[in-house]
Specification:
Rossmann fold; alpha/beta; 6-stranded mixed beta sheet; 34% helix; 27% strand; 10 strands; single chain; 4-stranded antiparallel beta sheet; 234 residues
Length: 234
């Protein structure tokens, strides 16, 4: 599978604080990748750089051969770590909006996922719980036919009963040549779906690789590897 994105010598600074320090990564195609690290490690900064919401102070990023810009944004589907859907809109109106805005939006898939999660398409967003709003946003993002999905804490507010369905949806909704990057603290919940992990520590890549290889090398599961890598950081 061809590589999707290249992050070359990328540094991002906020004032005197270094959020990312000379980061080099290759994002392969066809993978589900866990982006892991404690709060303030640079995970959200990296995701925002990939989707073009931030600009690096140094270095370069390319996605599907394009520098970050209009062409790269057309192949990236992004889920932020906070609610962004207008409260006054109904769920079906959000589907209408995504249909108008994104040529790759798969409405039948979105409607099927809404039905499976028992979300009323006629419900106003303001009447939904925080967890249900997060489900709607995830459905919208995963219903695009994108090449790179960037999910920032996609299951943080979702009830445990729905998590398995949502994780299964993440796996099945993306095409075989696409990749999904999931930033999360809920490592135990997502470990079973991960192909690779990237661990960021104080703005530096502390560890990255394929999950089976890392588990064999460390003789641990991903949660315990995480604890070892970030020992003393909390």
């Amino acid at each position: 599978m061809a590589d999707l994105a290249y992050i070359s010598n990328v540094t991002k600074v906020y004032g005197s604080q270094v959020a990312l320090n000379n980061v080099n990564l290759t994002i392969p195609g066809g993978k589900v990748i866990g982006l892991l690290g404690p709060n303030g490690s640079g995970k959200t900064t990296l995701i925002k750089l990939l989707c073009g919401l931030l600009t690096p102070n140094a270095g370069n990023i390319s996605i599907c051969g394009y520098p970050v810009g209009p062409m790269s944004k057309s192949v990236v589907s992004y889920l932020p770590d906070r609610t962004y859907v207008p409260e006054w809109m109904r769920v079906r109106e959000m589907l209408d909006y995504f249909c108008d805005f994104y040529a790759d939006f798969r409405r039948p898939l979105a409607e099927m996922m809404l039905q499976n999660l028992r979300i009323d398409p006629n419900a106003p967003m303001k009447t939904l719980s925080k967890g249900t709003k997060e489900k709607v946003q995830l459905i919208l993002v995963m219903s695009r036919y994108a090449r790179l999905y960037l999910l920032d804490e996609p299951i943080a507010g979702v009830d445990p009963v729905a998590r398995d369905y949502i994780l299964d949806t993440i796996i099945k909704a993306h095409s075989p040549e696409s990749s999904v990057i999931i930033s999360t603290h809920l490592i135990t919940d997502i470990e079973q779906v991960l192909d690779e992990v990237i661990m960021i520590k104080y703005g530096n890549v502390a560890l990255c690789g394929d999950v089976p290889g890392l588990k064999a090398a460390w003789n641990m599961n991903v949660v315990d590897i995480f604890k070892e890598v970030f020992k003393g950081c909390f």
